[in-house]
Amino acid sequence: MTNPIPNMMPDRxxxxxxxxxxxxxxxxxxxxxxxxxxxxLKLNLxxxxxSRMLCKKMSEFGYVGKLDTGVYIISVFYASKNSELxxxxxxxxxxxxxxxxxxxMRRVVPYEPDSEGRxxxxxxxxxxxxxxxxxxxCPAKGPLDAKDQVKETFWNRxxxxxxxxxxxxxxxxxxxxxxxxxxxxxxxxx
Length: 190
Hints:
The chain has 190 residues and is of the alpha+beta class.
């Protein structure tokens, strides 16, 4: 007599094949940016330096890829054609920009961390671009940064202003309680 229920347990080879196919599908479905956590800050600094050099808006620059650690390929429409620029952010405090196509343009811009050590600050001005303020690239703000900002703005105000606001808030509550109708008093019946 044969077994009417077929063996539903797959063999090891088919399990491996399915796992391999699933892993391949997942790898192909993921975006191929190749950016790490610190890359966003460095890429932002590169785009801001290029924006100042070419006097263009940040939105006009596109991220193409990453050649190596801290070396990015950035595209922009410049000199009546699409151009690719290489931008390297080195650990010794330099942003190096070079035209990938012609290699004729090469600029080195020094940068340094700010006093808090969170942001990267570069000083560069171009005669073609009216912006002269320092270039500052900071990491994206999270929910903790927003709480710190609220706390900082509260305590950076003069103390008389804080006390006056607290007094107004308290007196507003007292007036609201004074104008509220009193609860009915039971007359004790007949």
